Every structure is written in C-alpha cells, then in structure tokens.
Amino acid sequence: MAADGKKRKKKNAILPTDPMAEAGRKLFAQQIRRMKSHEAGSRTGEDIESVHQMRVAIRRMRSLFNLIGSHYRRKTVAKYERGLRDIARALGAIRDLDVLILDLQEFQASLPPASQPHMAQVVSVLDERRKECRAALHQLFDSKRYARFLRQFQRLAKGSGQGARRVKRAETPHQVRHVLPLLLHERLARVRSYDSVLPAAEDEILHALRVEYKQLRYALEFFQPILGSSAARFLQQAKRMQDILGRINDIAVFSAYVSRLEGLTPEQTAVVDAYMAARNEELAGLREQFNDAWLRFNNRRTQRQFSDSLLVLR
C-alpha cells in the first residue's frame, strides 16, 4: 500500500515544464481524494473536522479554477465550478454552526453554574438547526446529481488533456514555469493593494482581504514543491494573517447568527449578550494583532522571501 502511494505521488508530481492544465489535473486529483476521504465523516458529524477538511478541499478546487481556469474550456470550468459551489454551500451551513456551537460551549464553561443551563438551551436550539443542515447534506450526497458530478470530475482529473483548452501555438505561454510567476504576483498584488484602506477598514473590507489571502496561500501551497525554500517562510506570514482575519470573520458570523435567534427567555438573552460582549472585546485585540502582522507581512524581508521562491522556476 505504501509503495502504491509513493508511485502515485511521483506520477502526480507537478513539473515546471507541465502545461498549466496538466498541473491542474494533478492538483484536482489530489483534492478529489481528500474530499472523498472526508465524506463519510461529514455524513455522521462525529468529528467536526471532517466537514472542515472536506470544505477546505472544495475551497481549494474552486480557488484552483479561479487561478488557472483560462487554461480549460469555458464549459468545463462552468460545469465543475457550479457543482463545487453547491457542495460548498451545504458544508458551509454546517461548518458555521459547528464553530459557533463549539465557541458557545467553551464560553458556557466560564459562566456561573446557575447561568450554564441557559446557554445549554441556546446551544440545543442551534444543534437542531445543525441537524436540519446535515439532513440537507445527506440529500445532496445521495442524489444522482452528486454521483454524476463526482464521476465526471474524477474522469477530468484522471485523463491527461481532459477539458484543456487547446494551445494553438507552441510559443504561447502555457507551461507552469512561464505562467506561474505572473499568476502568483497577481495574487500578491491583490492582497497588498488593501494597504490603501488599512488599518481603519470595516469588517466587510477585512472579509474581502481574508478571501484574497486565502487565494494567495492556496496558490502558493499548490505549487510549493517546485518553488524555492523561502516559500515556506512566506507562507507562515500569510497563514498568520489569514488566521487573524479568519477569527475576525468568525465573530462577524457569530454576531449575525445569534442576532437572528428568536423566542429567547430573558435568562437566555442575558447569557447571549454576555457572550457577544466577550467576543467584541476579543475583536478589539484581534484588530491590534492584525495591524502588527500587516506591517510584518509588508516589510522588505517578507516580500523578498516571496520573490526568491520564484527564482527556481527556469
């Protein structure tokens, strides 16, 4: 089994001379395997990481289409992007509740004993909503549409040249070593352009920046095996920024969710208000962390790590 895994890994290794569509095929194959490996766990919900990991695989594939979709036929991209979006929505509805419920339970443990049952009742309401979302996920997984999507997507990932746009002229830039540096610099430019609206940005702006960081990080991670060693150090800084922005976004999602809760008793409302007060206090600290991390990300040393990582592409 181990030998088979090594053989498959070598076969699917990305080469600088690969056409971008071929590199994408190999990357899609990796992420489809990852997605499928977490499907059973996402059904049961016994480990919330299964939904999270399956959702990450979906996000990575959507990001990859966004990055190199121009190297595939337009109809191919539209078909698979639509299928991935539907799965992402079903998983996202559960994931948001998973994270919120876990956060509420941790806060519940810090409450006085007399208040803890009231928070437990709030959690119970959200858990019922999560069960409804999981039932919708089961319906999607059991559908013929999902089975057909998965079958066709696996065919794309297994067949060299499947869905690829034809390269009409040999001198047209289409190999990884020629195309990737520009794509990565574009991703970095999208992140750094936010410098003009920071640090006093609203939550909506920070959410958009988080998405751009995620796109940059995924793009680098896809191709890290053929990049220079400094890519790992640059990724550490990018991940730090994404983690901070991710938590800020979590709090925004939490706030929106609890504000829509109806029929709460005065005691339940009191513990929810206390929870949001604690999250808002945390938010102020996160914004300070973000400002410091942004300065470190934009310094010359970090940006040189990015540039140096591309020099090996020849």
Task: Describe this structure in a few short sentences.
With 314 residues, this protein is mostly helical. It has 12 helices and no strands.
Question: What is the fold's blueprint, element by element?
Answer:
Elements (H helix, E strand, L loop, with lengths): L1 H10 L8 H18 L1 H6 L3 H21 L5 H35 L7 H26 L2 H15 L17 H17 L10 H21 L6 H30 L6 H32 L2 H10 L5
Helix pairs in contact: 2-4, 2-7, 4-5, 4-9, 5-6, 6-11, 8-9, 9-10, 10-11, 10-12
Task: Describe this entry's structure for a reader.
- The chain contains twelve helices and no strands.
- It starts with a helix and ends in a 5-residue tail after the last helix.
- Helix 5 packs antiparallel against helix 6.
- It has 314 residues and is mainly alpha-helical.
- Helices cover 77% and strands 0% of the residues.
- Distinct helical segment count: 12
Question: In what range is the share of β-strand residues?
Answer: under 5%
Structural class: mainly alpha
Terminal CA distance:
35 Å
The main β sheet shows up as:
none
Uncertain runs: none
Radius of gyration: 22 Å
Q: Give the overall pLDDT as a whole number.
A: 93
Total beta strand runs: 0
Shape: globular
| Order of helix and strand elements from N to C terminus | HHHHHHHHHHHH
Helix content: over 70%
